[in-house]
Amino acid sequence: MSTEILLTDLTAPDFKEEEYELVYKKPSTFVDVPMHYCPGCAHSLAHKLLMEVIEEMNIQEQTIGIAPVGCAVFAYDYMNIDMQEAAHGRACAVATGIKKLMPDKYVFTYQGDGDLAAIGIGETIHAINRGENFLIVFVNNAVYGMTSGQMAPTTLPGMWSTTTPEGRNTDFYGEPIKVAELIAALPGALYVTRQAVNSANGVRRTKKALEKAFQYQQLKKGTCLVEIIGNCPSNWKMTPVECNRFIDEKMVMTFPLGDIKVPKG
């Protein structure tokens, strides 16, 4: 018994586009090129949410992004906005200079955990302590993604990496750094939240957090940080489905989700 699948001919004379409901459209803020990220990688989804928010807020011409070394470095290939590359860990320093020269622009950094929490922790803390008025988008997948999955400051206790093949020993390497909680204590931090993109609800909450962060930038009262818990199937040595379970069962135990600091009043 055969099954016949009938496909609508979109070029047929009797085809009427208005008969179909549009359920998704690629944001105009995306460059129309194929993405290179590994299957299941959270970066592509984080990119999409950022570009959707920028499109919906109609701030494409007023937005500048800074992407340093790491998997984040390729963001400028896909984001149809003004972009600036920065040296490894120096995105917050570059963002500070751009924002001071062009205070009316929306400025954000897009950084991974190895970049922000290790090499760039100094720039990050001092920029936030000064209350620099830009957004930090911090993608936390607990490893150095681009360079083969070495241990990062955010690697979980007992978690395998290429430099901790027997799991992270906290007696030797210390505990994971909880960046959001660390910087929330600084007076210059205006809005700090941690979200995840491994579920439909998580994606919606992450998008809302990014929207709030851009809106708060208009207040000119300090730095916003949106931490996004994401996966790295290639370096975690898991399927994307296994990664999603790992986030729910392990990652959020060390990095609990939700708002950590919100503006008063």
What is the average per-residue confidence, as pLDDT, rounded to a whole number?
Answer: 92
Q: CATH fold name, please? A: Rossmann fold
CATH class: Alpha Beta
How far from one another are the termini? 67 Å
Q: Report the structural category.
A: alpha/beta
Overall number of strands? 9
Can you summarize the main beta sheet? 7 strands, mixed
Shape: globular
Please give the count of helices: 10
Regarding quaternary structure, what we see is single chain
Word description of this protein:
This protein has 265 residues and is of the alpha/beta class. It is built from ten helices and nine strands. The strands form two sheets. A seven-stranded mixed beta sheet has the order 2-1-3-4-8-7-9, sandwiched between helices. Strand 5 and strand 6 form a beta hairpin. The longest helix has 18 residues. The chain is globular, with a radius of gyration of 20 Å. The relative contact order is 0.14.
